[in-house]
Amino acid sequence: MKPFIVYVDFDGVITDSDHPENGIRVRSGTKEFLEAVKALGGQIHVYSTRANYQQIKAIHDHFGVDCWDEMLDVMRGAGIDFHLVMTSQGASPFIKPYYDFIIEDKSVPSFTGNWNEALEYIKTRVNDPTFVSVLEKFSFV
Q: pLDDT per residue over 75-122, tens digit each?
């Protein structure tokens, strides 16, 4: 199998809410989906814009919660294994990461919460003989 990268948004995708004040729960089926992607050769890169310094400070001051620690605690508590966590902390918001697939609730079409649909899409693409991953295209990734 060819290795590939899947970026998965934290708030509203891995979790079923994008508002920390409502409590953070891992969406049903998330762990199983990520395990299936890894079994296909995928690297899981979790990303969030919530964990930049200004947001961490604002949320900590308002809710008494450290977003970065909370994000990692939620994933570890659910047994979610990931390759990388990417945030906008210290980076330009205009830097596009390298990925083969992105699962995002604010894209078009957006993630609807159906992990089976997302997995079938990835399986179809990865099993296509013409599929070339960013890991193959760019040796520096």
A: 888 999 888 777 655 555 556 778 899 999 888 778 889 999 999 999
Q: What DSSP character marks residue 22?
A: G
Strand bridging mode 42-48 / 84-87:
parallel
Using DSSP's 3-state secondary structure scheme, residue 43 falls into strand
Return the CATH fold of 4-136.
Answer: Rossmann fold (3.40.50)
Q: CA 17, CA 13: separation in Å to the nearest integer?
A: 8
Domain ranges of the chain: 4-136
Q: How far apart are CA 140 and CA 26, in angstroms?
A: 32
Q: Point out which residues pair with 85 in neighbouring strands.
A: 46
Task: Provide mean pLDDT across the span 35-58.
Answer: 79
